[in-house]
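Thread title: Can someone regenerate the structure for this chain?

I was given the following input by a collaborator and told the matching structure tokens would be attached. They weren't. Posting the sequence so someone can regenerate them.
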Amino acid sequence: WYLGRAFPVRDEGRVVRWFGTWTDIDRTKRSAETSRFLIEATADVVGEDDVETILRRIAKLAVPLFADWTAVHLLDDDGRIRWVAVNGSGDDADELLRTSSPVPADRTFERGPIHAVRTGTTDWASTVTDDILAACAKGRHLAFLRSLDLRSVIAVPIRAGSTVLGGITFATSGSGRVYGIEAVVAMDDMARRVGIAIENARLVDALKAGDRRKDEFLAMLAH
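Best answer:
Regenerated them for you:
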């Protein structure tokens, strides 16, 4: 992002030359976009009691406000990592989500989303290289990542306290945006907020289940 200004220099009303400046405002603009994403995403998930709906909303809101591509994973009770949402350009994202099976409990990678979920640590690449992609995925998934011409990536774990629930990955390609440390800190905060929303949603679900069991018990007594 640049801010352009131009001023005419006149001689008796006739423009004889122009004086202009270009100011790099990319950092300021990106920071404002990141803040807007955090505010809107937080507001969007408050009160939602379905976990997967929360995660799909985050994935949808992130593009194009903060990322060109985003992917969300959940860690199931059996240790498998399951795709929940992918959002990006074209129909390839939907096809990838439909054909992706859960990652087995014993499968891990040196970099990327699965690594972030398995280790509970944020993985950040300000500049994506092919070596980084090869450390994130294999087979068809790796080929898909290579086709995206990714520029920059942040993969953050979703936590509820000390428990890792899943992860969110943000990536840029055509926009040319490069994630700096400020974006990493912001997305760590985002993942923390999402973790709280998920924890609240699960608590609400447990309370509803308890109410249903109580109603069923009372109905049985009434008979």
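The longest helix spans residues 181-222.
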